[in-house]
Write a structure and sequence with these properties.
By secondary structure, the chain is of the alpha/beta class. It has a single domain, classed as P-loop containing nucleotide triphosphate hydrolases (Rossmann fold, 3-Layer(aba) Sandwich). It contains 12 helices and 8 strands. It has an 8-stranded mixed beta sheet, sandwiched between helices. Strand 6, helix 7 and strand 7 form a beta-alpha-beta unit. Helix 1 crosses helix 11. It is globular. The chain starts with a strand and ends in a 5-residue tail after the last helix. About 4% of the residues have low confidence. InterPro entries: MinD_archaea, MinD_FleN, P-loop_NTPase, ParA/MinD_ATPase, YlxH/NBP35. One of its GO terms (cellular component) is cytosol. It comes from Methanococcus aeolicus (strain ATCC BAA-1280 / DSM 17508 / OCM 812 / Nankai-3). This is Cell division ATPase MinD.
């Protein structure tokens, strides 16, 4: 029987879909059978991150009652199964989010973990997704507006009795203006599962339609995501050391031909 984990955020633009996609792929690297569903049926983007855009049958078609969920499952990167939401406005208008519970029931025996990429905020579609999940991971940015909105998701999750596994801090740059992980943990009253740093390779991998954990596995963001996946699966993962040279070091290297 699969466990369901909703990836949710209080506001848009936190990097939720990218994180959902990469975490799903990272979990497959630890031997888990994973299905990831794009539940943001109004603003679907998961298929773009996974390089699966343009599929004819999507979750919106299933929720509209004109397709079976088995026909909306596609093979994604590294063996992850992907259920895209699609971009058809007609299917979106006819989709009924209340059918989601039946969809998930059909998928329970097909994987170890189901990742639900939820819509941002606390609208009808987001509430349906959160209530359908057993567990939830909050995705936040280290800024007060993101944390404030995340508090609403925490309150709703508790009302639905959805277990909150913790929060992931995304796009951290370690600037003085950012909230610390300790402060975020104190405000939200949930553990911090990991910190994903700001990484330009995320944008580069998205342009190729390939998850960063596959396209740039040694990048700082990839290493952070792999650590989170290891924590969720109870596995051990030792991140690779990535040496970041300062401008001075690069200048010296140029002067002396690369000698230390």
């Amino acid at each position: 029987m699969a466990i369901t984990i909703a990836i949710a955020s209080g506001k848009g633009g936190t990097g939720k879909t990218t994180t959902s996609a990469n975490l799903s792929v990272a979990l497959t690297k630890f031997g888990k059978d994973v299905i990831v569903l794009d539940l943001d049926i109004a603003m679907a983007n998961l298929e773009l991150v996974m390089g699966l855009d343009g599929k004819s049958i999507t979750l919106n078609d299933v929720l509209a009652g004109r397709a079976d969920i088995m026909d909306a499952i596609y093979d994604g990167p590294n063996g992850v199964k992907v259920v895209p939401a699609g971009i058809s406005l007609d299917a979106f208008r006819k989709a009924k989010p209340e059918r989601l519970a039946d969809v998930l029931t059909k998928l329970y025996g097909m994987c170890d973990i189901m990742i639900l990429d939820c819509p941002a905020g606390i609208g009808k579609e987001a509430l349906t997704a959160i209530s359908a999940a057993e567990h939830l991971i909050l995705l936040v940015n280290p800024e007060i507006s993101s944390i404030s909105d995340a508090l609403k998701v925490v309150a709703i999750s508790k009302r639905f009795e959805t277990n909150i596994l913790g929060a992931i801090i995304n796009r951290a740059s370690l600037e003085d203006t950012e909230l610390s992980s300790k402060a975020i943990e104190t405000i939200l009253e949930v553990p911090i599962l990991g910190i994903i740093p700001e990484d330009p390779n995320i944008r580069r991998s998205a342009a190729f339609g390939e998850p960063i954990v596959l396209k740039y596995p040694d990048s700082p963001a990839s290493q952070a995501i792999m650590q989170i996946a290891a924590k969720l699966t109870g596995k051990e993962y030792v991140p690779k050391k990535t040496e970041e040279k300062s401008l001075v070091k690069k200048f010296i290297k140029g002067l002396f031909g690369g000698k230390k």
